[in-house]
Design goal:
Strand content: under 5%
Structural class: mainly alpha
Shape: globular
Radius of gyration: 21 Å
């Protein structure tokens, strides 16, 4: 019976459909490759040219850009290939899209054993606007570090502490936005779902990622302070993202910004206390609710956030939609917000009602918090006479 089912699933018609969708996913990205934007013109293109003109990897002996060495190694590697730098940079990001889609498929299979579910999740990821806009249109590398977060979550599902922390560490070595996932990881540590000693991988992986740059001549202290310098590089309270600061627009206020960071930290600690007090079993459903809540809550509360910072929550929203299809409005709200933000930046559409969307996002966040409350084992209050 099982063999017959597999043969039916991989019939010539199904294989043709899969191949057709793969071709369309590639063509979609090819069409978007020529699109340029401010980030490419002001940052990626000058970085690429400087590396290329100064000997490829040898150029990394000097500080170029403000990204971590792990991504700069990729840019240096790409300079050895023929072709336009815009195409090369975006192609690398698009390859990450397919790795991301595979990881989404694998995790969905943990929740939905039906043969169609994993394949559907794979293609939903590839045709998900925030994914292809980020890579093929914008040229950003967010899919790369999100792959690390997905690997971390897969390890968490199976209580494989070292696998989980390795994924988290690689993500952290690529992007500071990995910290959006830190409350979730900390929760699992205090619940002893993950081993505390696995935290040693975070500094170990980061140090390993900077050693080649140090050997090439980069200042070790500068490499250790990259994220600190990045965190002080932007002063606008809201940079196109529909979050708590959407009504302030691009206003700059140092005091309010610092207060906002402390406020976000306080709310996150309260949420962790609530989760720590819950004695509910850390099953797959509770882990998924907690992971999405962490990735959703942190960028909503923090100032200085960019348009694309909901993207990790978007990807975990795909997992959430497959597990809880009746709650699809939660990831849908995120997807609309992120799509509008990325499309507006990339194509200058000027159609991004961040104030309105921030209220929609808040409603979705409250709904997710309510589901997390129930999933964590807290009973509903009975009405009193």
């Amino acid at each position: 019976m099982k063999t017959a089912t597999l043969n039916r699933n991989w019939s010539p018609q199904n294989l043709a459909a899969v191949c057709g969708l793969l071709v369309l996913a590639v063509l979609l990205r090819v069409v978007l490759l020529p699109a340029t934007n401010g980030d490419y013109r002001m940052f990626l293109h000058p970085w690429f040219q400087e590396i290329q003109q100064n000997g490829g990897f040898a150029a990394l002996s000097n500080q170029i850009g403000d990204y971590t060495p792990l991504y700069m190694y990729l840019l240096a590697f790409l300079t050895y290939f023929p072709g336009h730098d815009l195409t090369l940079i975006k192609t690398a990001s698009c390859v990450a899209d397919f790795v991301l889609a595979f990881l989404v498929m694998r995790i969905v299979q943990e929740y939905r054993p039906e043969p169609w579910a994993g394949v559907a999740a794979f293609f939903v990821s590839l045709f998900f606007p925030p994914v292809f806009l980020n890579s093929a249109a914008w040229g950003q590398c967010d899919a790369m570090y999100i792959c690390g977060l997905l690997a971390c979550f897969y390890g968490c599902l199976h209580k494989r502490s070292w696998m989980a922390m390795l994924g988290f560490s690689i993500a952290f070595a690529l992007k500071l936005q990995t910290v959006f996932f830190a409350p979730f990881v900390l929760w699992l540590l205090v619940r002893r779902h993950l081993k505390w000693r696995s935290l040693l991988l975070i500094p170990a992986v980061y140090l390993a990622s900077v050693i080649p740059a140090v050997l090439l001549g980069r200042n070790f202290q500068d490499l250790l302070l990259i994220y600190w310098n990045q965190s002080h590089g932007y002063n606008q309270l809201c940079m196109g993202i529909p979050n708590l600061y959407a009504f302030f627009g691009p206003a700059q206020n140092e005091i309010l910004g610092k207060a906002g960071v402390l406020f976000a930290g306080g709310v996150v600690l309260l949420a962790l206390l609530f989760l720590w007090r819950s004695r509910a079993a850390l099953d797959h459903d509770l882990l998924l609710n907690g992971a999405l809540f962490s990735l959703f809550l942190v960028p909503y509360l923090l100032p200085y956030m960019h348009e694309r910072y909901y993207m990790p929550a978007d990807i975990f929203g795909i997992l959430y939609a497959f597990r809880f299809p009746k709650r699809i409005y939660i990831p849908l709200a995120l997807a609309v917000a992120d799509t509008l933000g990325q499309a507006n930046f990339t194509f200058g559409l000027q159609e991004n009602p961040v104030e309105l969307m921030s209220l929609v996002i808040l409603a979705a966040l409250v709904a997710l918090a309510a589901f997390l409350y129930r999933t964590a084992g807290y009973p509903r209050r009975e009405a009193t006479a």
